[in-house]
Amino acid sequence: MEAKEVEKIYKLANISLEGKDVDDLSNKFNIVIDFIDEIFDVDTKDVEFTEAIYTHDAVFRNDSNSKSVEREEALKNASDKEFGYFRLDWKL
């Protein structure tokens, strides 16, 4: 991942890069990406597939209706909004 891509990700996430070393962040992202690539190389042909853990005792709650957050309240801290929605600049 190049520094330009890191800048794009931070801008999309609305996170400041001020005081951060973009090249260092780029290297850290690349370490994670390389690790993920290694995971895909692991031979799992003899490993039994498990989709769920049946020994887990999850406690479920009943669904309940409640009032939603008003649109104005949800958008009050948005840095950019349009037509009553969050607006994202995808052309970075």
Automatic annotation (TrEMBL):
Keywords, comma-separated and alphabetical: Transferase
GO molecular function, one term: transferase activity
Keyword match rRNA-binding: no
Database matches in Gene3D superfamilies: Glu-tRNAGln amidotransferase C subunit, N-terminal domain (1.10.20.60)
Entry-linked Pfam families: GatC
InterPro entries associated with the record: Asp/Glu-ADT_sf_sub_c, GatC
Catalytic activity: L-glutamyl-tRNA(Gln) + L-glutamine + ATP + H2O = L-glutaminyl-tRNA(Gln) + L-glutamate + ADP + phosphate + H(+); L-aspartyl-tRNA(Asn) + L-glutamine + ATP + H2O = L-asparaginyl-tRNA(Asn) + L-glutamate + ADP + phosphate + 2 H(+)
Keyword Zinc belongs to the record: no
Alphabetized PANTHER family for the sequence: GLUTAMYL-TRNA(GLN) AMIDOTRANSFERASE SUBUNIT C, MITOCHONDRIAL
Role noted for this protein: Allows the formation of correctly charged Asn-tRNA(Asn) or Gln-tRNA(Gln) through the transamidation of misacylated Asp-tRNA(Asn) or Glu-tRNA(Gln) in organisms which lack either or both of asparaginyl-tRNA or glutaminyl-tRNA synthetases. The reaction takes place in the presence of glutamine and ATP through an activated phospho-Asp-tRNA(Asn) or phospho-Glu-tRNA(Gln).
Name of this chain's protein: Asp-tRNA(Asn)/Glu-tRNA(Gln) amidotransferase GatCAB subunit C
Organism for this UniProt entry: Anaerococcus nagyae
